[in-house]
Amino acid sequence: MSEKLQRLAVKMSDLFPKDTSSPQYYYDLFKDIYKQQKDYFFHFNPSDIIKLIFYIYSYNKTNNFKLADLMLNKIGFASLFVTQGDNYLETCSDCGGNGEVDCSSCDGTGEVECDECYGTGEVECFECDGSGVDSNNPEEECSECNGSGVRTCGACNGDTELDCDNCSDGKELCYSCDSTGEIETDKSLYDYYVICTWNTFVKDQCELRAETFEPALSEYDFDRLRDDFIVLGYQESYQRFINGIQTGEIYCSNYSDEPELHKSYSSDYKIWMDDNDMIRYEG
Question: Is residue 31 part of a domain?
Answer without folding.
Answer: yes
